[in-house]
Write a structure and sequence with these properties.
Helix content of chain B: 40-55%
Shape of chain B: globular
Largest interface: A-B, 82 and 79 residues
Strand content of chain A: under 5%
Number of strands of chain B: 11
Structural class of chain B: alpha/beta
Oligomer: heterodimer
Order of helices and strands of chain A: HHHHHHHHHHHHHHHHHHHHHHHHH
Structural class of chain A: mainly alpha
Number of helices of chain B: 15
Number of strands of chain A: 0
């Protein structure tokens, strides 16, 4: 960038600003906290003897699983964009009836752990499954790498959907109207006006889908696909934690490269804008296929798992298993933990996203990117790092209260909030802020009365993402929760482990219902307008 | 109790989180000082805890003869809640002043957590389905010896020689199969199935329709046992031959059993696994086609144990010791048989259950505490021979 360009000068001025200095310091502190568990990885990995380390890092087996993981990641990302972006446009820019309902249906698959989805999908559509035994019709075998891509995409595209949607909602529609009046058709208007404006939003969601895909273990393992996380787990299961740590660092290094590349794609684009709602795309007869496609997606991803579990509930004649029975406290625990995680993640995200969105410095970008590292590492590895750090810092509070667990959720899921808030921050119009300043408004007042409302859609999207992914988080919850504090997903997991799927029915149903209701509440806060 | 949990969470959740966040940074700078510290906080020794009632013996004692259990116990369990909660509930019901906090997680994760927690672990007892896992925490010097009467009551091959862990109940490696699908195979009926574990790797009739779960503790135990019994070269050949059968490799025991039971065209018809999976599915659905058979006199019918180790930091050694005695008493052994389809480890306790009597099973004798090949090497062996998931 030309260091004397207007932008550069402005950003330098902003950096010199004491207010920005405070934001920078807070951001740095938060980023440091978030990457602190990585210190444990480094320390563990440092104990591996050089010969063994070389063997682990550069073996042909490692090369093979690395390639598989990259293919998995790329395919899931591409497919998530292909599903998520059209759905976001459909629910915000068109006259689709009941947009809020369809928004919730399209976002909810995020709350189903993908390996649970995989199990349900195979029992429903696979050979020997429900559809097979009734209709004698089976889909081709869902297995291996392609099966993993298929299943993970079904439960990961909502990342792209939600972040793109947030970008669309906070976009100034009058720009599109202007384009339309200049004789651009809807497609051309989308390509030339809308797309550049929502590109950071799409990129933010695509990055999350990519990182989820590369760090997921359960689904590839179920699908018998050999990916990078399998190697990490094998060492973990051999109790060779130092090897697992070394491999996790290798995964982080791969992801770091992706983060740098993505930083170029998702870079700033000054979208500017108020929030005038302009004319929408009329769907006409197309609204039926549109609703039909979202509905079928919802059936496959949400109804099928619950139906499978309910089927077991009806058929089973097994003995009562008291340990697996559902208690209301379990639902409360899930909501409590997920709500707390969403709140703390938003608190962390605001300064980080604001700082990196409003300044162009390398430092701010590094801080923002650093928050993504925790999401690239399997939860069980971060969990183990926190077991160590928790027992060494505050042993008397270890597994007393939820602080360590909530911190773990934030380490893993903060990028989901940072990404969405940042894309909203990028859309703030400089002139609006200048105008407010010229009216002698105080810094905090400007933030509260102007900035905060403008980034609200991003904050809400971030809170929804963190809430939904925390609802389904399993490995860290099992490791760090106050002993005996069960969640809905723990109940589903226990039922699966005990081969008593009937006990998974009620918690799975609650998981979907509670998440749906929470989304209704959150979406209301965003000031969603029924169109 | 749930209510209290809720209240506490609400009032202190956020504050303690922020406090923790602050300390975590301080903790990092102080990290170097803590690393490698062994902790080692020895509480009273469990080995010295005299019986509160009768001692346990190999001929079997009743719960009525044992002392009362009073106080709080924290148990890390790798075993699943459906299997183990019942005995904990039975004990809590029997003793009003007993509270058992149960932490359930994946077995291997529990081992890793215990190692990282070291002396700061809240756990008094680690309950695992895998002697390899018990041996792993023993090797990290995280556990302490059990009382002499407990050690003497359990046969030497089912426990650590110095009593640093002991088996509590037995299980046998088995062949799971789908009875309805035998017609699709070249086997006449169940009696036609081989009783030699090598046939499952070499007989072409199993090609494409067999599976196993290489990452499970008991499969690794099976490999360790085979190395002991047949030597490393023969074991490697077995693994290679088995891989030539184009087996499906599952990562979860439940997923494998469910695939056998579901019986789709792509699902395996035979699986090497633990026998109790079959019992669970038949319990859920009496028409389930999954069945169990055993090999004879080889590692394929390895008799293994689920068992316990006590940590070095127990709060109340008398309570922990007496709790272990309850597990090994006749009543405790009967819970394991009736609810889990497992076998007793105490000689004086008779087997009652649906499976063949362990005496008829012809499981070879192995010392579960001291395989020649350790667990990591067994795992490497599998990796080198191309069996990896």
């Amino acid at each position: 960038m030309d260091r004397w360009s207007l932008d550069a000068v402005q950003s330098r001025l902003r950096e010199a600003d004491p207010w920005m200095g405070v934001v920078a310091a807070v951001s740095a502190l938060f980023a440091l906290l978030i990457v602190s568990p990585m210190a444990w990885l480094l320390w563990q990995a440092a104990t591996v003897e050089v010969a063994r380390a070389t063997e682990l890092l550069f073996s042909s087996a490692t090369a093979r699983v690395t390639l598989n993981s990259l293919v998995l990641m790329a395919a899931v990302t591409a497919a998530s964009i292909l599903i998520g972006v059209p759905l976001a446009v459909l629910t915000t820019q068109t006259d689709l009836p009941y947009p809020r309902f369809w928004t919730i249906v399209a976002a909810l698959p995020l709350v189903i752990p993908s390996y649970i989805g995989a199990i349900a999908f195979v029992s429903m559509f696979g050979s020997g499954g429900q559809v097979d035994s009734v209709l004698g019709m089976t889909i081709p075998r869902i297995q291996g790498l392609s099966g993993s891509v298929f299943i993970i995409t079904l439960y990961t595209y909502p990342y792209v959907f939600l972040t793109t949607r947030a970008a669309l909602v906070s976009m100034d529609d009058s720009l599109i109207d202007a384009a339309r009046t200049l004789n651009h058709g809807p497609v051309a208007a989308f390509r030339r006006v809308t797309f550049p404006l929502i590109r950071p939003g799409i990129a933010a969601g695509a990055l999350l889908a990519a990182l989820y895909a590369i760090s997921d273990f359960g689904t590839p393992a179920f699908m018998q696909a050999n990916v990078f996380t399998n190697r990490i787990y094998r060492e973990f299961n051999n109790f060779s934690v130092e090897y697992a740590a070394l491999l996790a660092l290798q995964l982080i290094a791969i992801v770091a490269v992706i983060l740098v590349i993505e930083a170029g794609i998702g870079r700033d684009s000054d979208a500017g804008g108020g929030r005038e709602r302009g004319a929408t795309i009329r769907l006409g007869r197309w609204k039926w296929p549109a609703m039909g496609s979202i509905a079928s997606l919802g059936i496959v991803t949400l109804v099928v798992p619950v139906a499978i579990f309910v089927g077991w509930l009806i058929r089973s004649q097994g003995d009562r298993i008291p340990a697996l029975e559902f208690q209301p406290a379990v639902a409360f625990n899930s909501v409590y933990l997920a709500g707390l995680a969403a709140l703390v993640a938003c608190l962390f995200a605001v300064p980080l996203a604001y700082y990196s969105g409003r300044t162009n410095s390398l430092f701010s970008r590094v801080l923002e990117r650093a928050t993504y590292l925790g999401f690239a590492v399997p939860g069980v590895v971060i969990g183990l790092a926190l077991v160590f750090l928790g027992t060494r810092t505050l042993p008397s509070l270890y597994r007393q209260g939820v602080w360590l667990l909530v911190f773990g959720y934030v380490v893993r899921f903060l990028p989901q909030a940072v990404g969405t808030v940042r894309s909203s921050v990028l859309q703030i119009d400089d002139e609006t802020l200048e105008a407010a300043r010229s009216l002698d408004a105080g810094r905090l007042e400007i933030f509260r009365r102007i900035t905060l409302p403008l980034i609200a859609p991003g904050l809400v999207a971030g809170a929804v993402l963190v809430f939904l992914t925390t609802m389904k988080e399993l490995p860290m919850t099992l490791m760090l929760q106050p002993i005996g504090m069960d969640t809905l997903v723990i109940k589903v997991w226990q039922a699966h482990d005990a081969l008593a799927y009937r006990y998974a029915a009620i918690p799975a149903l609650f998981l979907i219902l509670i998440s749906g209701v929470t989304m209704v509440v959150l979406l209301r806060r965003e000031g969603y307008e029924m169109t | 109790m749930e209510h209290n949990e809720r209240e506490r969470g609400h009032t202190t959740g956020r504050r303690s989180f922020l406090a923790a966040a602050g300390v975590s940074v301080a903790g990092l700078t102080g990290l170097a000082g803590c690393l490698g510290g062994n902790g080692g906080g020895e509480a009273g020794a469990v080995a010295d805890a005299e019986p509160l009632g009768e001692p346990v013996t190999a001929s079997g004692v009743s719960w009525d003869d044992l002392g009362d259990l009073e106080g709080e116990l924290t148990i890390y369990s790798g075993r699943t809640a459906d299997q183990i909660d019942l005995i904990f509930d039975a004990l809590e019901e029997r003793y009003d002043d007993l509270t058992i906090s149960r932490d359930y997680d994946d077995n291997n994760t529990q081992v890793n957590s215990l190692i990282q927690e070291d002396a700061a672990t809240p756990a008094d007892v680690f309950y695992s389905q895998d002697p390899g896992a018990l041996e792993a925490v023993r090797a990290e010097d995280l556990v302490q010896a059990l009382p002499a009467d407990v050690i003497d009551a359990v046969p030497a091959s089912y426990r650590h020689p110095d009593g640093l862990w002991t088996g509590v109940s037995g299980r046998v490696r088995s062949i799971l199969y789908n009875e309805d699908r035998l017609g699709e195979t070249d086997f006449e009926d169940a009696d036609d199935l081989p009783t030699d574990i090598f046939a499952y790797a070499e007989d072409p009739r199993f090609e494409g329709i067999i599976s196993t779960r290489p990452n499970s503790g008991t499969f690794r135990g099976f490999i360790q046992a085979m190395v002991e019994f047949e030597g490393e070269e023969t074991t490697r050949r077995w693994v290679r031959d088995f891989m030539d059968q184009d087996p499906q490799l599952f990562s979860g025991g439940s997923d494998q059993a469910e695939a056998i039971n579901r019986g789709g065209d792509d699902d395996p018809i035979f699986a090497l696994g633990n026998s109790y999976y079959g019992a669970r599915l038949v319990n859920e659905d009496p028409d389930a086609p999954i069945r169990v058979t055993f090999t004879q006199g080889d590692a394929g019918a390895l008799f293994s144990v689920a068992g316990i180790a006590v940590t070095r930091t127990v709060d109340d050694p008398d309570l922990v010791a007496e709790f272990v005695r309850h597990l090994l008493a006749v009543d405790g052994q009967e819970v394991m048989m009736e609810d889990n389809g497992e076998f007793p480890v105490i000689e004086g306790v008779d087997y009652v259950g649906d499976l063949p009597n362990p005496a008829d099973l012809d499981s070879p004798e192995f010392d579960l505490s001291g395989f020649d090949m350790d667990l990591q090497d067994a795992s490497r062996l599998l990796e080198e021979e191309g069996m990896e998931v």
